[in-house]
Amino acid sequence: MNKVEAIQALMQHVSADDLVVCCNGMIGRELYTYGERPGNFYMIGSMGLGLSIGLGLALAQPNKRVIVLDGDGNVLMGMNALASVGSERPKNLRHIVLDNQTHGSTGGQRTISGEIHLDAVAVAAGYLTSRRAESLEAFATALGAAFSEPGPTMVLGLVEGGTIKGIGRVKETPPELTARFSAEAQR
Amino acid sequence: MSHESKGPSKAPEFVAALKGAGFDFFCGVPCSLLKGLVSLLDKDEAARYISATREDSALGMAAGAFFGGKHPMVLMQNSGLGVSVNALASLHTMYEIPVLLVISWRGEGGNDAAEHILMGEIMHPILDLMHIPHRVVVKDEPMGPQLAWAREQLDATKKPVALIIPGGVLE
B72 CA to chain A: closest CA distance, Å? Predict the structure, then answer.
């Protein structure tokens, strides 16, 4: 499974009212290219904080579904936030991790998610459910299950490394992203 | 501590002023200088205080809460300002996300445990360099106008603003 296939599988479950917080790095650019919508927030700095942003949003808007689209480098950097999710237990939070075991946007250096299985960390940290998928079919099945039950839940998909040609960069300025995402979140 | 703890804690008045100024999302990492504030917020079911694990994570939660329509406050020891520099620079300031920082002043006047001395000295210059408006909370003045100042700054700048808490104010 490559990241584009994974993003397209995820977006099949994302409906108009859902809010997606996306981590920095290549995944944000890929989501922007293959799944752009005003209900997406693209975090272009502050690596590791996507899950914390999603948690605050899920608590502030308990009637909206909040999806955090994350990468292994981001989860490892902000692993403390998994404990906060496990402690607060927001039913409306789903944490989708695309794990390529590398830091993609800095040149593909290895991360340590090959040895440390982040889906197991989520269980230990108090997520209600967590699933690990090693194929596109398994990922699609896991997403179907995760979106039919209460959170907090993690779906981790193992994806191929390397960069995808032709992906764009987020064109909106950060303040423009804040304005449009806030409007969607409070709609 | 260079500040003597004279008179009762201003924590109850500070919490009332926070709410009066419209703040409605509270999280952070504690400091002994803020123990009265943390204790009140944690007991207050309406405040729904979140005990965060790191200051930058608390700031991330505050950003998400702001997107969701809240007016967030994050409390921390000034050591946590060091942890928070990247979040404040590349998240809140860059995206124009207002958040009230309530930062304790360990190391004030160079009279504190060794680990607090340097940060106590450079906290104000760090805030200046980051273009974060800040003000030291004065114990003997009413809390309402001090919190109102912070809210006005947040509304005007759409960026972080800091209230510095010396010893003896919110313990």
Answer: 10
